[in-house]
Amino acid sequence: MSILHAEWTKFRSVRGWVLGLAAAAGLILLFGLAPGMSGSCGKHGPASACTPTIGPGGEQVKDRFTFVHQPLAGDGSVSVRVTSLTGSIFDGPGAERPGLAPWAKAGLMIKSGLTPGSAYASVLLTGSHGVRMQWDYTHDKAGPSGFGPQWLRLSRTGEIVTTASSTDGVTWTEIGATRLAGLPATTEVGLFVTAPEYTSEMHQGLLNGSQGGPTQATGAFEQLTTGDGWTGAAWHTDWIGGRPDWTELPDPQQQGAGFRVAGSGDVGPAGAGVSVTQTLVGTFTGLIAVVVLGAVAMSTEYRRGLIRTTFAAAPRRLRVLAAKAAVIGGATFGIGVVASAIVVVFGQRILRANGVALLQSSATTQVRIVAGTGALLAVSAVLALGLGALLKRSVTAVTVAIVVIVLPYLLAVIVLPVEAARRLLTFTPAAAFALQQAVKQYPQVDDVYAPSAGYFPLAPWAGLAVLIGWTVVILGAAALLLRRRDV
Asked: Transmembrane region positions (predicted)?
């Protein structure tokens, strides 16, 4: 305890170290609270915040599609044959080309109402993922993998919705069933078509990112029938979520017992976007400050010859190293948690006030991000401390620490292509940035799941484990040399 107290007293007495810690917090606050990002949901001010579409589970969702439907009461079923699904991709004004988004959708849907975000279940044919059953935006179940004409059937019994598909309309294969809690007695049932934006990886010089644009799909339906108790009225068309403003979608065309329907949008999770992670954009600058602090906290004693005095007062060198690590790590963790908590709380308010459509994050996720950012800074500072003890020279230790800890993150989010970036953030200490991930990856949503978009290859605590592993190795090597060296 006396060694720990001595190291804490030493840390507080060195003005440069205290200022370095304050600088780290200041940089995180500066970047996190700067009103640089703005949105297009309205003018600046409290009334400009975007209003997200919220699904039945409280999550943000996308709910935009063309719906040819009729109100149907009680139990029953509806079936249809999807004969074709075609589409167009728009690369810019006047730049239309044939193409179909992999998750373009055409099929049958039962929906509790016409309000975006209301509960639903659907069976559908996709652009390149076969037949699927999807419900309540976040749930997806694979059916047959065929891409030719498909028969689809959707049945309701109370709150239970069952889906099936067939290639001939005679032999049916059940895909799945789900319970839609609170499904009203009268629901909206019918055909729907939608097509999400396409996304692709983009490289410009030394920079990487993603690009995309809207798509449109057209589904051809035949032999649309209702049965088993359902006898509907006329079919009506609604553009749920609003009609697209970037193109003129043709109105659905009735063709005998079928329809030709065009749609654009998506029905599913909100996907990629601006999240609470954006408020912590200054973490890497604060990380540079604490890495420098950790490296010089040990190497300075070698440079000034103070290490002999330290070891003379405390001959057990490994305890000295452990005490220094505890002081540096504890102080950095504390200041990191405070700074990140401030920017997470107030940074989100600033973004929303600027009209930015901010993805929601649960309280648990935000607590993990705040604590994780503190841990990222603290363990990185201890790793740099180990490098300072290992290399003894301040400039060398600082350089190596930045190259090992900070540079991989910058390369991954700015320069490298996606696969190389993922590999780099799997094996280097920068893997711990996964602690700041707030967005969830869904297999039924095509995004560029890249570090530059806030997606990391490892789970949050797995990323921290990688950083801890590096730190243990470096500290172990430093401890071994401390025992063998004269000083």
From this structure: 280-300, 321-347, 367-391, 398-418, 461-482
pLDDT value of position 434? 95
Measured in whole angstroms, how far is the alpha carbon of residue 431 from the centre of its chain? Answer: 15
Residue 247 DSSP class? S
- Tokens representing 475? 């500290």
The contacts of residue 370 (CB under 8 Å, 6+ apart) are 337, 340, 341, 344
- The rounded distance, in Å, linking the Cα atoms of 65 and 84 is 18
Domain boundary among 269, 286, 311: 269
Query: How far is it, in rounded angstroms, from Cα 472 to Cα 479?
Result: 10
Give the residue numbers spanning the domain of 21: 2-39+274-484
Flag whether 54 is in a domain: no
Give the 3-state DSSP-derived string for 411-429, with helices as H, strands as E and coil as C: HHHHHCCHHHHHHHHHHCH
Q: Is the pLDDT of residue 302 over 70?
A: no
Find all residues with CB under 8 Å of 224, minimum gap 6, and list them.
Answer: 78, 79, 80, 191, 257, 258, 259
Q: What is the pLDDT of residues 412-471, one digit of tens each?
A: 988 888 888 999 999 999 999 999 998 888 888 887 778 887 889 999 999 999 999 999
Asked whether 415 and 207 are in contact (CB, 8 A), the reply is yes
Of 220, 241, 269, the position where a domain reaches its end is 269
Q: Is 256 helix (H, G, I), strand (E, B) or coil?
A: coil
How sure is the predictor about 48, in pLDDT bands with cuts at 50, 70 and 90?
A: very low
Q: What is the largest CA-CA distance in the chain?
A: 96
Q: What pLDDT digit, counting tens, does each position of 128-170 carry?
A: 999 999 999 999 999 987 777 999 999 999 999 999 999 998 9
- pLDDT at residue 260 tops 80: yes
Is 204 found in the same domain as 304?
no
First to last CA, the chain: 23
Residue 357, judged by CB atoms within 10 A of its CB (0-12, 13-18, 19+), counts as middle
Closest CA to 328 of 370, 372, 384: 384
Q: Which pTM does this prediction carry?
A: 0.83
CB neighbour list of residue 264: distance below 8 Å, 6 or more residues apart:
64, 66, 194, 195, 214, 215, 216, 217, 244, 247, 249
> How confident is the model over 337-362, as a mean pLDDT?
88
* Within-domain flag for 50: no
Say whether both 74 and 8 belong to one domain. Answer: no
When divided into structural domains, the chain yields a total of: 2
Distance CA 13, CA 87 (A): 68
Length of the chain: 487
